[in-house]
Amino acid sequence: RCVADFQLSIASVTEDNSSGCLSQDLNLQAQKLAEKLKCDAVVSGISAGPGTVNFTINRELLAKAVLQQVLKEGSEYGVKSELFSTVPRQKAVIEYSSPNIAKKFHMGHLRSTIVGNFIANLKVALGHEVIRINYLGDWGMQFGLLGVGFQRFGSKEKLKSSPLQHLFEVYVQINKAAEDEHVKELAKDFFRKLEEHDEQTLSLWKQFRDLSIEEYIRVYKRLGVHFDEYSGESFYQETSQEVLKMLEDKGLLQKTKKGTGVVDLSEKKDLSSFSTVMRSDGTSLYITRQVVDLAAAIERMNKHQCDTMIYVTDKSQNNHFEHLFHILKLMGYDWAERCQHVSFGLVQGMKTRRGEVVFLEDVLNEVRARVLENMASAKTTKQVEDPVETAEKVGLAALIVQDFRGLLSSDYQFSWDRALQSRGDTGVFLQYTHARLWSLAQMHGSEQLTDCNVACLQEPDAVSVLQHLLRF
């Protein structure tokens, strides 16, 4: 369906734009204004809509202007516009993905990975400098448990051949064994040695971390994702103590009756809103993730001197980041205003044929297998050089486009049938269309066009494509 190229909302220009202005009054004003305006060589049609004046551009001029610009700018079309040329170039630090080490890449981290990567790619395309950071969950009492578990159930051979799968199996076993208080004490002792930088303990933990990153890089390669820095909670254990000292020196750290350390975030300073920065188990005090994240933010800003810091996580962490930015402001860091949390809803209902999916690679392998099946059964599928690689790319597009279809903040129900449809707003159809266009380009040679005949581009479908190109 052909729509107007541009619309003017009467409510945005009328002197009386109060909410009491009746819609029929706006419609009447739109009608009167449309009748007064005249067409010219550029504008071929003016009409009134519901509270709007619609402008249609001369079709031949529209086609020429858009296509000449496309030919002139090539792959940079859309990012060399006058609008973007006035945007100041900035430096952005973007933290996304952030899985927990010694665990296989969980499906829950997929959204953070592809949304964060999308934001980073957009900023790079617009000329901004981007630092991509993967902030790993690589510290905490769970590594005491895993260390003891590996000492009991671990195998160096299995760790080498399938590190994350083996560590996952070990973690399941030691969790069952941890019902025994003696095992819990051993785990605490292991983590204490880790904090004290015991050489043997630290060496095992480092092996877990290095093997995890190697596995993650392999999975990220399948997703077309890369990072400039692999950071982690372990990097900021010492500076976290400095942050606690700063909070204390500024009078922001308060102790509760239970010995817990908190920062009061309430306006009336009555602890009606607070953030916990130290916890007690009755015998020892432990810093919380909030302090570690404060230390990480401060160190990143000192290191990169960036214009903005963006954190990409699911919406369950909204409260955490609201508190994080608030505390930074209380500490006197004005740049906290330039920190942003991009949150998203959760993916629900994602199952493979074997049942509930836990790991991302299960999903990637499943979608590749399903696309291969569809390719084999489709009569229109042409012979391709590498069917598996083709299915991998089409399957990945299916996952990403399904993820981006709805509102970012909303949870959504994953559907294999919807994701793999070959028609509609799907990744499969997107890849099919790209392949078809590439085939047409090859069919007509690689000679660079210098001019084009636009007489054949007047039908509604062609005009709709031109309008989309113009908006891009």
Automatic annotation (TrEMBL):
Keyword flag RNA-binding: no
Transmembrane intervals: none
Entry keyword Protein biosynthesis: yes
GO biological process, any: mitochondrial translation
Domain of life according to the entry: Eukaryota
Function noted in UniProt: Catalyzes the attachment of arginine to tRNA(Arg) in a two-step reaction: arginine is first activated by ATP to form Arg-AMP and then transferred to the acceptor end of tRNA(Arg).
Family under the similarity heading: Belongs to the class-I aminoacyl-tRNA synthetase family.
Name of the featured protein: Probable arginine--tRNA ligase, mitochondrial
Organism: Eubucco bourcierii
